[in-house]
Design brief:
Blueprint (H helix, E strand, L loop, with lengths): L3 E9 L30 H11 L4 E5 H10 L9 H8 L2 E4 L11 E3 L4 H11 L2 E5 L2 H10 L4 E7 L19 E3 L4 E2 L5 E7 L10 H4 L2
Parallel strand pairs: 1-5, 1-6, 2-3, 2-5, 3-4
Antiparallel strand pairs: 6-9, 7-9, 8-9
GO molecular function: 5-amino-6-(5-phosphoribosylamino)uracil reductase activity
Protein name: Dihydrofolate reductase
Pfam family, one: RibD_C
Length: 210
């Protein structure tokens, strides 16, 4: 079996992915807009997000996101929450340079060889999802160690905060794998797969008229 590594990220039009869920989620750098995603929640996008959650066989998280999830989701176990049931039940793998205490059930610290660890996860699980974990996601994106980038883009500009593709990100081309999904609040889901290095060329007159 060759499984897939799927990166799930909520971001603004200017690429900010910091603290979408709550004001205290990640206030680092004095970020003042924590919880920016909440005003755009609706039934349609919620159903799509839950559908994606139900496909998860394992979680792969950065240390900060792991700590947030571990403090939140176990408290919601047994409350008829699909998300809580899935996230509490699947194996969790954590990327950290330290030696954290991992108290959430079925949690394992990744080893230092990221490429080997990703290969092992692909061999073991059909779908391993990275949710948020923006700093860790940078490492996966730069190294090409992912199979799908699932971006939820929201119609607001924040002007500051951690970005999905910061200055200095490794250049790459992505391929859209299905038509975009749009919610009534203006959020758009874009599912991309890696498509190789960046190619350049010259636009002809006929291209400019399209």
């Amino acid at each position: 079996m060759t499984g897939r590594i799927v990166i799930d990220i909520f971001m603004t039009l200017d690429g900010v992915a910091q603290a979408p869920g709550a004001p205290d989620e990640d206030p680092s750098g004095g970020f003042p807009y924590g919880g920016w995603q909440a005003p755009f929640a609706d039934r349609a996008s919620g159903e799509q997000i839950i559908e994606g959650i139900t496909r998860i066989d394992a979680l792969l998280l950065g240390r900060r996101t792991y700590d947030i999830f571990a403090a939140y989701w176990p408290r919601h176990a047994g409350q008829a929450s699909v998300i809580a049931d899935v996230l509490n039940g699947v194996p969790k793998y954590v990327a950290s340079r330290g030696t954290p205490t991992l108290d959430w059930a079925e949690s394992t610290l990744l080893g230092p060889d990221l490429a080997s660890e990703i290969a092992a996860l692909r061999a073991r699980y059909a779908e391993t999802h990275v949710i948020g974990s923006i700093d860790f996601a940078h490492s996966l994106l730069d190294a090409g160690l992912f199979d799908e980038l699932n971006l939820w883009v929201y119609p607001l500009v924040l002007g500051r905060g951690k970005k999905v593709f910061p200055e200095g990100a490794v250049p790459a081309t992505l391929r859209l794998v299905e038509p975009p999904f749009g919610s009534g609040t203006g959020a758009v889901r874009l599912r991309y797969a890696p498509a190789g290095p960046v190619a350049t060329g010259v636009m002809g007159p006929e291209d400019r008229e399209v």
